[in-house]
Amino acid sequence: MRKKWQISVPGSTANLGPGFDSIGLGLSLYLKLDVSLQDSWEIIHLDDNGPSEFELEQHLLYVIAKKIADQYGKELPSCRVALSSELPLARGLGSSAAVIVAGIELANQICELGLTVQEKLNLSSQIEGHPDNATASVLGGLTISSMDENGIVDTFHVNDIEASFVVFVPNVELKTSESRSVLPEQFERAYAVHASANANMLAASLMARDFERAGRYMEADLFHEPFRSTLIPQYAEIRAAAKVYGAYGTALSGAGPTLISIIPTTIAEDFVTAMAVKFPEHHIILTKADEYGVQVI
């Protein structure tokens, strides 16, 4: 049996506007684990994108790994796990989903479970409660997914997303629970039909790689952004400026507070430079779609 592993999990953006809880995109921003078997458990964070103080039994990575091992009737071996992350916590870049996918993969490797991709999709989405971020971290690329009442995930997966993405990360956290609390419990039928049509057009545009049209529908969400926008620093200003400087479209990344723009790769450097001058209080990151999903080295 192997005694050392390196696990890499991409972060993700979810929704991309109206694709609420169903559309995800793996990003080239990563959670990385260096794992080695040893006589006792040890989890070490190598940066600030993780809890500074925690009890082992409450750390999400350990909780998930233990849950999966127990579910498959295995004893979870003790490990030293050193984590480095490019995913700030509670910013809408899939940090919790990445840890969930990492915990599943950790158990898969050290317990020799031999999980299939479908099992990883099902398990991670069931734990998350919806399949958008989880499927994107498992598969990379663009994912359009649904999960049935039995927790079985069905996913369209598209790679080769030939566009660039820019994320605007403010120096504030926004818990998903808080951002969900402002959403309506129900919509009128005509409103819901309009919102669903926009989501369908977004999904079709992305799959057709018609990014100009996709950007237009990214900005046409009716499910959540009209209600969450008041919680987001400089929401309207960033969307307007991004359009002036050539973005196809801008939307909340997941529940926020990060925003994400899809842009032509040809303007990427100039776009980031201009937006960094206009919004110096945001951490602005140029990235692209991840192509591989969770990887074990």
UniProtKB/TrEMBL annotation:
This is Homoserine kinase. Keywords: Amino-acid biosynthesis, ATP-binding, Cytoplasm, Kinase, Nucleotide-binding, Threonine biosynthesis, Transferase. Catalyzes the ATP-dependent phosphorylation of L-homoserine to L-homoserine phosphate. Its main location: cytoplasm. It is found in: Cytoplasm. InterPro entries: GHMP_kinase_C_dom, GHMP_kinase_C_sf, GHMP_kinase_N_dom, GHMP_knse_ATP-bd_CS, Homoserine_kinase, Ribosomal_Su5_D2-typ_SF, Ribsml_uS5_D2-typ_fold_subgr. Coiled coil: none annotated. Belongs to the GHMP kinase family. Homoserine kinase subfamily. Its EC number is 2.7.1.39. Pfam families: GHMP_kinases_C, GHMP_kinases_N. GO terms for molecular function: homoserine kinase activity. Pathway: Amino-acid biosynthesis; L-threonine biosynthesis; L-threonine from L-aspartate: step 4/5. It is an enzyme of class 2 (transferase). ATP binds at residues 88-98. PROSITE patterns: GHMP_KINASES_ATP. It catalyses: L-homoserine + ATP = O-phospho-L-homoserine + ADP + H(+). Residues 203-273 form the GHMP kinase C-terminal domain. It comes from Lysinibacillus parviboronicapiens. HAMAP family: Homoser_kinase. It comes from the Bacteria. Residues 60-141 form the GHMP kinase N-terminal domain.
